Amino acid sequence: MPLSAEEIKRIARLARIEVTDSELDEVRVQLNNILAMIGQMQAAPTEGVEPMAHAQDVALRLREDVVTEPDRRELFQSIAPQVEAGLYLVPKVIE
Predict the structure, then answer these.
(1) Alpha-carbon dihedral of residues 76, 80, 83, 89, nearest 10 degrees?
(2) Cα 36-42-47 angle, rounded to 5 deg
(3) Distance CA 9, CA 28 (A)
(4) Is CATH 2.60.40 what the domain over 5-43 is classified as, yes or no?
């Protein structure tokens, strides 16, 4: 079911997009093409197809979860203007 000019104007208003009368026909054609493509995709047979997390069957190699850097928090916080209980204190910006 193709969209009418009034429906395009309503969609544009809801999306806060300005569509001039000269652009109306082009936008209508584009949206109708998008809706037609969605209709074609919905018509594809998907019975028995399992949902996938990724288009390819790949697995990421994971590295071991080990600490590789020394703890230098005390050093970094020693030069901070204000620190309390291991946290950096920052001035209030918004009241």
Answers:
(1) -120
(2) 160
(3) 9
(4) no
Distance CA 72, CA 78 (A): 10
d(CA 32, CA 43): 16
Predicted TM-score (pTM) of the model is: 0.51
* Distance in angstroms (rounded) separating the CA atoms of residues 3 and 19: 15
Spatial contact of 5 and 27, defined as CB atoms under 8 Å apart: no
- Domain borders along the chain are 5-43
Read off the DSSP letter of residue 82: -
Mean pLDDT of 27-56: 90
Q: Cβ(83)–Cβ(89) under 8 Å?
A: yes
For tokens 């809706």, the residue is 35
